[in-house]
Amino acid sequence: MNPGKREKILKAAIKVFARDGFYNAKMEEVARRAGVAVGTTYLYFENKDDLMISIFEEEMVPIINAMRREIAGQATATEKLTTFVRVHLSFVEKDPDMAHLLEVEMRQCSKFIHGYHGGRFKEYLDLIAAILVEGQIAGEFESSISPTIFKQIVFGAVDQIATNYTVSRARRINLNQAADQIVQVLLQGITKK
Predict the structure, then answer these.
(1) Which portions of the chain are predicted below pLDDT 50?
(2) pTM as predicted
(3) Could you tell me the domains of the chain?
C-alpha cells in the first residue's frame, strides 16, 4: 500500500466531510478530490465510518503533541489549565475545517458513537485529568474533585464553545473571551464573593 495515497485520501476526506457533512458526503467525491479511483479508497478504508475514525485518530496526534508542549511550558497547574482551554480554542480558530469535522461531523459517524473506545480521545482527556491531579498535589485545587468528572466538565465546556463557533459562521463568538470565561468559572466558580 502507498502511504502517500492514504494521506491524500485522508486530506480529501477532511475537506469533503467538512463541506458536505459526514452524512451527505460520498466516497466517490473523496476519491475524486484525492485523485484516486473509488476502489482505491476501499483498499485503505473499510467504509466512510472507518475513514472518519482514521481521520480523528491521526489528526489528534499533532494536536495532542502540541498541547503537551504548551502545557509543559507552564509552571503551575492553574497556568496549565488556562493554557489547555486557550490552546484548544485556538486550534478551532486556526483550522475551521478540522474543527467542524471534530466538533460536528464526528457525531454523525455511527462507529464513533457506538464503537469507538477511546484511543486518542482518552489520551486528550487524560491531559486535563493530569492537570487537576498535579494541582491537587500542589495544593492549588480542591482534593475532593474527581479527575474523571473534572476532565468531562472541562472538555464539555470547551467542546460546546467550539461547536457553537464552528456552526455559527455568520456570528462567530470571540474565542479568547470565551476561554477567559471558562477559566474564570473553573477556577473561581459562580458564587458572588
Answers:
(1) none
(2) 0.85
(3) 1-45 (1.10.10.60), 53-188 (1.10.357.10)
